[in-house]
From TrEMBL:
GO molecular function: protein-N(PI)-phosphohistidine-sugar phosphotransferase activity
InterPro entries to which the protein is assigned, alphabetical: PTS_EIIB-like_sf, PTS_EIIB_2, PTS_EIIB_2/3
Protein name: PTS lactose transporter subunit IIB
Taxonomy of the source species: Bacteria, Pseudomonadati, Pseudomonadota, Gammaproteobacteria, Enterobacterales
Keywords from the named record: Phosphotransferase system, Sugar transport, Transferase, Transport
Ranges where the PTS EIIB type-2 domain occurs: 2-88
Single GO biological process annotation from the record: phosphoenolpyruvate-dependent sugar phosphotransferase system
Pfam families noted in UniProt: PTS_IIB
Highest taxon listed in the record's lineage: Bacteria
Organism: Rouxiella silvae
Length: 88
C-alpha cells in the first residue's frame, strides 16, 4: 500500500484539511493508501511514496528522489484527484 504524506509549514490546519480531502478522493476512486499529515521539518526525515503540499513548501522536499506534487490551491480537489488517479 502506498503512503501519502501531506505537508504544510506547521503540520496543523491546512495539511489536515488536505488529508481529509485526499482520503475522500481515494475512497471515490476505489483505491487504498495510507494518508497522514505533518510539518515540513518532520517530512524531511519521513519516508512516503507521495508528498503533497503547497508549491512553496513542497519545493523544499524536491531532492530528485522523492515524488512530490505542489498545489497552487490546497483546496483544488480536481488537481488532487488528477495526482491520485495518475499515481495510485
Amino acid at each position: 500500500m502506498k503512503k501519502i504524506l501531506i505537508v504544510c509549514g506547521n503540520g496543523l490546519g491546512s495539511s489536515f484539511i488536505v488529508e481529509m480531502n485526499v482520503k475522500k478522493i481515494i475512497k471515490e476512486l476505489g483505491k487504498e493508501a495510507e494518508v497522514s499529515h505533518t510539518d515540513l521539518s518532520s517530512a524531511k526525515s519521513e519516508a512516503a511514496d507521495i508528498y503533497i503540499g503547497s508549491n512553496e513548501i513542497i519545493a523544499s522536499l524536491d531532492d530528485g528522489k522523492r515524488t512530490v506534487f505542489g498545489l497552487n490551491n490546497l483546496l483544488d480537489n480536481a488537481k488532487i484527484k488528477e495526482i491520485l488517479t495518475n499515481n495510485l
